[in-house]
Specification:
49% of the residues lie in helices and 11% in strands. By secondary structure, it is α/β, with parallel strands linked by helices. The chain has three domains: 4-144, Rossmann fold (3-Layer(aba) Sandwich), CATH 3.40.50; 157-334, P-loop containing nucleotide triphosphate hydrolases (Rossmann fold); 338-484, Helicase, Ruva Protein, domain 3. 38% of the residues are buried.
Length: 489
């Protein structure tokens, strides 16, 4: 008999995509639109697992958990939570939740947690002989992981994606060497590449092949938080460390356990915090903000940046010693324009993903359209490609992808916002200056977000202040170019 799962979320897209995805796995998946409906369902029906959003109008996910436990109901509960609610989610785990998964999540990731939670339930209630017979199976993720360390997964989801792309063959070879080596989590890894090129995918693949892949993968964008908050998020703090520190707080280094900590946009980290991170890397120990006790670092540190760190070192904004400490293993992710042979694989993978989420059956891309798309430089890289396809799938619901579904500038092979001089340069050399690629990506992202600067900054992974400064420089450059054209005229 298949497991019965209750999905609780007030967002129809999330609950329906989860229901369809889990039903496709053979589970008996049901949905509830509110906490009140979930409590009514659990009162009348026995479920093997509950997956609930933490924040719900009315009765919250935490209140659902507490109500179940007060009734003596030990059904495992997985919490879905936005990043800012991690503290509350950890409290929920202390209150009896099985695990939590941050939003946005990959369907493949939540499927793994579902399997682990259901397996753990079976092992808890099974006779001792049965438990002994299954002890060698994969440990559940996160805080429920057993003492037996999960073996590195050289054929995990993200590794398979990288291996399928010919343009990432060098990246895949490095990852396989990491997985086959005996080096532990004390070896940091630095991933470099343009925004949107797939650095997070590589970081998750690093986690898959690492010795601590049975523990958590925790990620943070160093450009999204001011330095004092970033320090607290990384290392935690003790009660009274600062005005708003009402209780002790676990940081990502604690929550990750023996897993991985992915620090994206490491080049945006303040110099003072860089000094502390350097000491952590050297001593493999850290201290909570305001605390006196030292804790051992068990997680692997994976850093990523779209900045040229050598230039930042020369400018005095990044520490030379931290750079060399981070780049023990360095992985360069090439931009999408340098690996057009990967386009077909990526497009079909994204179409398959959105088919699953939206309940559609859009077919694979045909050779004629693929040839057109391979001529476009994709300044926003894989992220731009994914966003374009998602917009097409939602708005057009196509049976097959057709040229008419794509913006004219993509079919024309260039961005209409780029200047004639820069287009001439690109046409003559086959290359595009890195600064121009960055400019095109920023302008295109603003267009995609309807000029919402806060949203665009989040998509780009930079602070709003950085975005404003770059736009100011672009405007100044444009005025200079116009003046030069007038003078030539």
């Amino acid at each position: 008999m298949s497991a019965r799962i209750l999905i609780v979320d007030d967002e129809v897209t999330i609950r329906e995509s989860l229901r369809e995805s889990l039903a496709a796995e053979g589970y008996e998946a049901e949905i509830a639109e509110s906490g009140e409906e979930a409590l009514a369902r659990t009162h009348n029906t026995v479920y093997d697992l509950v997956i609930t959003d933490l924040r719900l109008p009315g009765v919250s996910g935490l209140e659902i958990l507490q109500a179940l436990r007060n009734q003596g109901n030990e059904t495992p509960v997985i919490m879905m939570t936005a990043y800012g609610d991690v503290d509350t989610a950890v409290s929920a785990m202390r209150g009896g939740a099985y695990d939590f998964i941050p939003k946005p999540f990959k369907l493949s990731a939540i499927k793994k947690q579902v399997r682990a939670a259901l397996r753990a339930t079976v092992e808890t209630t099974a006779p001792a002989a049965e438990v002994a017979g299954t002890a060698a199976e994969q440990a559940p993720t996160g805080s429920k992981a057993t003492a037996a360390r999960k073996a590195p997964d050289l054929d995990g989801h993200y590794m398979q994606m990288i291996k399928a792309c010919p343009g990432l063959s060098r990246v895949g070879a490095i990852l396989e060497k990491i997985g086959n080596s005996r080096s532990g989590n004390d070896t940091p890894i630095l991933i470099q590449g343009e925004s949107g090129s797939g650095k997070e995918i590589v970081a998750r693949a690093v986690h898959e092949v690492s010795q601590g892949s049975g523990d958590r993968f925790m990620e943070i964008n160093c450009a999204a938080l001011p330095e004092n908050l970033l320090e607290s998020e990384l290392f935690g703090h003790v009660k009274g460390a600062f005005t708003d520190a009402k209780t002790n707080k676990e940081g990502l280094f604690e929550l990750a356990g023996g897993g991985s900590i992915f620090m994206d946009e490491i080049g945006e980290m303040g110099v003072l915090l860089q000094s502390r991170l350097l000491r952590v890397l050297e001593n493999r120990r850290y201290r909570r903000v305001g605390g006196k006790d030292d804790f051992e670092v068990k997680a692997r540190i994976v850093a990523a940046t779209n900045r040229q760190l050598r230039e930042a070192i020369e400018a005095g904004t990044f520490r030379n010693d931290l750079y060399y400490r981070l780049q023990v293993i360095e992985i360069d992710v090439p931009p999408l324009r340098e690996r057009p042979q990967d386009l077909e694989i990526l497009i079909n993978a994204f179409v398959s993903e959105f088919n699953g989420q939206l309940g559609m059956t859009t077919g694979p891309i045909d050779a004629g359209l693929l040839e057109l798309l391979q001529k476009y430089p994709w300044p926003g890289n894989v992220r731009e490609l994914r966003n374009v396809l998602k917009r097409i799938m939602i708005l057009e619901a196509p049976v097959h992808l057709e040229p008419g579904h794509f913006p004219d500038h993509i079919l024309a092979g260039h961005n209409p916002r780029s200047s004639s001089r820069q287009q001439a340069f690109g046409a003559a050399t086959g290359l595009m200056p890195l600064s121009e690629v960055e400019r095109l990506q920023i302008l295109y992202t603003l267009e995609m977000t309807e000029n919402n600067k806060s949203k665009a900054a989040r998509v780009l992974g930079i602070s709003r202040q950085t975005l404003r400064e770059k736009l100011r420089l672009y405007e100044a450059a444009r005025e200079t170019e116009l003046q030069a054209d007038e003078a030539e005229g």
